[in-house]
Design a protein that fits this description.
Elements lengths: L2 H26 L35 H30 L2 H14 L1 H10 L3 H16 L8 H4 L9 H7 L7 E2 L7 E2 H11 L10 H19 L1 H10 L3 H59 L1
Antiparallel strand pairs: 1-2
Length: 299
């Protein structure tokens, strides 16, 4: 069986599970899924993204003075004296394969955020794939440490509440840099807060403590994997603040555009059979009317 066939069967199975769990959840309880927002430091590498759409502002940064000071703290204090040294130790203690397994586990644990937002965005096939990925990687992949699903053709994809807001017409608002956090817009800041409440760990500790704890571990792991890359960007960027800001905003627009295209493809595939049936019915009615007119003319 080909990889495409495997993907289709797994997506179908995931979608069936999705519907079943949704119906059970409506009948049993209304507690929200919870997860965290993932790190987006690699945004500084995005330099070839398309221009913003008509509903997006171009690098709207009215609070640049505050943001620049906060960025200085995050990068020149937090990263330089805490994150980077921790990442160096992390990379020496743990082999690359172990760090990759940890990255897989972090991604797997953040499934609820992606699953819920894909459902709300109307990207149901992707939500089915998300659920199928989680079941496979949690079981066969030993709690997500091994990405079995990708080998079977179920590729990774992202979704979050800020992206969902954008699909429903909420504008991004000003660019925002907050202490200890990755770049944001005001829209994404509200989305980040909502995603924090969807973190399963927040059932046991406060949402932001759970989110911050795992985000810190994920960030250190990512920093260790990309140590040379980050250093090269730092050395070659004339204006690192502007590079990070522009890269993040461009990547964000691209992510939203991809989600919109995925949603449109989903609903087009759902509506096409109905449109075909409607056209077929109209054609039959026209043929019947035409046959009736000819019969009247000949009688």
């Amino acid at each position: 069986m080909s990889s495409a066939d495997n993907r289709s069967l797994l997506s179908l199975a995931g979608f069936v599970l999705l519907v079943s769990i949704g119906l059970f959840g409506c009948a049993a309880r209304g507690d929200p899924w919870r997860t965290s927002s993932t790190s987006d430091q690699e945004a500084i590498l995005a330099t070839d993204m398309p221009l913003p759409g008509p509903n997006e502002e171009m690098d709207y940064d009215p609070g640049e003075s505050f943001n620049d000071e906060t960025f200085y703290f995050n990068f020149n204090v937090l990263d330089r004296y805490a994150l980077k040294p921790a990442a160096k130790v992390w990379s020496k203690v743990l082999p690359e394969q172990v760090r990759q397994s940890l990255s897989n586990a972090f991604y797997n644990l953040a499934m609820p955020k992606r699953f819920v937002n894909k459902v709300v965005q109307g990207r149901l096939p992707r939500a089915g794939e998300e659920l199928a990925r989680f079941v496979l990687n949690t079981t066969v992949g030993f709690a997500g440490f091994f990405d079995v699903a990708s080998r079977l053709g179920l590729d990774k994809s992202d979704a979050d509440t800020g992206q969902t807001f954008a699909l429903y017409g909420v504008k991004p608002g000003p660019y925002l840099v907050l202490p200890l956090l990755s770049p944001l817009t005001v829209r994404d800041a509200f989305g980040y807060a909502a995603d924090s409440f969807m973190d399963p760990l927040s059932w046991f500790v406060t949402p932001f403590a759970a989110d911050f704890g795992r985000a810190a571990a994920d960030r250190i792991n990512e920093r260790a994997d990309n140590m040379t890359l980050y250093d090269d960007v730092e050395d070659t960027s004339l204006d690192l603040y502007a590079a990070v800001r522009n890269g993040y905003l461009q990547r964000r627009r691209q992510s939203i555009e991809d989600a919109i295209r995925d949603r449109d493809r989903t609903w087009k595939s759902i509506l096409v059979p109905f449109e075909s049936q409607k056209k077929s019915t109209l054609a039959k009615h026209r043929q019947l009317l035409h046959d009736g007119v000819r019969k009247d003319q000949t009688s």
